[in-house]
Structure formats: structure tokens, C-alpha cells
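Bug #77: duplicate submission created two jobs. Keeping one. Sequence:
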Amino acid sequence: MRRKKWNIQILFIVLFSFWITACGKQADTETLTGNVEEESEEDVAIEEKMEEESEGDAAVEEAAEGERGKAAVFILSRRKITMEKEQVPLIQVENMKKYYPVKGGIIPHTTAYIKAVDGVSFSIMQGETLGLVGESGCGKSTIGRQLVGLEEPTEGSIYYKGTNLAKMKNFSRKNGERQRIRTNLQMVFQDSYSSLNPRKHIYEILAQPMLYHQVSTKETVEKDIAKLLDMVGLPMNVLGRYPHEFSGGQRQRISIAKALSLNPEFIVCDEPVSALDVSIQAQILNLLRSLQKELNLTLLFVGHGLGAVNYVSDRIAVMYLGKIVEIGSAEDVFRHPVHPYTKALLEAVPVPDPETEDKERGILQGEIGSSEAPPAGCRFHTRCPYAVE
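Kept job's structure:
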């Protein structure tokens, strides 16, 4: 009996010890779990705080990005506006036409029209030189005379800095704003002798326009004339002489000085070297190039030979019977012509090299069309080697 009691007591003690151990482990586990939960809650709080801070930083970054974006958009918009302003052409021509009436009959009346310029469109940017080339009678000089207001177009629009000159009635006459605009549009004529007054000496020819348009005063006119003569390469002793006392090249320099006397932005050079010797032509072309770069002038250079036109021009337009048949950069038109008429003009240029082998030149066949009754469709098709019936 005693042994059974002793065994029961030992079993009870063992079970009790196991129970105590189990309770201790459970308490430790609960404590550890509580600590872990507390630590996790602290970590969650820290993480939430960090998230709030990151969200705040993100908001700040977004705001900064927004401000930078707005600034970038503002800068880009300003650049765009500036580029748009810079891209506005100084001269823009849209569908310009010039018809001259042909009179006839017992009782004189208009029987037909000479379509000297028939639907021409182009633009010239500030500081650019556009070359206009073509045969005699194709309408080159007529375009130049209309651009400077010596003639009014029959139809179409001529824009100068966005102002439609064609809608200004009697643009060629004296009238406030028109007169101010016309001083900015000058012309160098082909015949320098007839463009200068033979009864006036050079001082009067240069000084009177400057005084009349108030470009200079009586106190400063002599100094301004001296600058003009220096720009065109003439000495001061020419002022007391008359136009007939000069050579062709000297008269053309005087004509250029006369065009520059009113500080123009745009000058039409109407075949300024066609009546000069080759050596003098080179001098005048170099003078025009240097003046264009020095004064940032915008030029329309009218000529026959593609060589001279290519030398001074940024872009070239080719005319035939009142129409522009090809226009592009000077290099593209000169080296890679597209229209058959342009190719024919290039082939007609003589090569100054006796050792160069003679090449077959395409001689244009067919009849030249009439400006009074131009051919239908492409006006060059009567002479085009690629035309088919």
C-alpha cells in the first residue's frame, strides 16, 4: 500500500512539474507574442509614419515636378511663339497675277490680255536671298516691280510683315503708311543709266531722298552719304559728278548706294549685272553678298544665268511663261534639278574649260508659248522632251 501511495505521489509530482513547465512556456510564449505584437505595432506605426513622410515627399516632388513642368511648358511656349514670330516671312506672295490689256479695233477696246504673271506664290524670309531665273519675258521683272509698289497686281496678295499690300488701295501713290512701307522696299534697276537723273549730280541723287523721308538731317546727311559711298566702294570725289561721267560698274554701285540710302529691309535686284563685263559682274556680286550679310538685307535677285544667281542666292525659283515651275534651295536646284526646263537652263551654261570633253546638250525643240494665249496644262509641254500626246 505504501509503495502504491509513493508511486502515486511521484506520479503526481511529475505531472505537477510538467504542468508548471507547460504553464511557464505558455506564459513565455504569450509574453513573447505580446512583445512581438507590440514590436510589430511599433514597426507598423513607424512604417505608417515613413509612408506619410514619403507621401509628403512625393507630394512635394509632384508639386516641384508640376512647377518644373509648368516652367518647361512656359519656356517651350515662349520658344514656340518666338519661333513662330521668326518664321513669319518678310515677303509673302499668294496667287499673284498681272495682266496687261491688249487694245484693238476701230473703236479701241480690250481684245485680249498679256498674262505676264499668272498665279505665282512664294515667300522670302528675313535675311534670305531668293534668286528668280528664267527667259526674257517670263515675268521676272514684273514680279519685282509689283513687290516694291511700282505696279499693282491684277489679282492676288502681297504680304509685307503680315500686312497685305494688295488691299491697300493705290499702294503706288503717296499715303502715310504706304509711303513708310515703300521706303523699306527698294529696287536696283537693270539699266543704271536710265535709273539715275542725268540732270543731277550724285550728291543730289543721294541726299534728296534721305532728307525728304527724314532719314538724315542737313547736319548729318554728308556723314551718312560718306558711309554709303564707303560701303559701295566709291571715293568722296564722285559727289560733284553726273551719271554720264561714270562707267557701267560705277553707275551700278551708285544705284546700289541709292537703294541703301533709305535703310530698306528688302531690295529687288533686277538683273543688276547683265549689262556689265564679267570682271565687273564679279565685283558687283561680291558687293551684294557682303552688304547682304553686313546689313542683314532680304533680297530678290533676278537674273538670266544660273551661275550668278546660284552664287548669291539661298533659294532659287525658276519661271517659265508667268509661272514658277520649280523652287528649292540653291544647291538642290543647281545640282539636282527636277523640271526639264531647269535642266535645259543648266545645260545651256557654257563650261569655261577647253579640256573638258564636249557633252551632248539637250536643245529644246518646239515653239515658245505665247503669254497672250498660254498653252493649257503645263506651259512647257510644247517644248518638253518628256511630253506625250
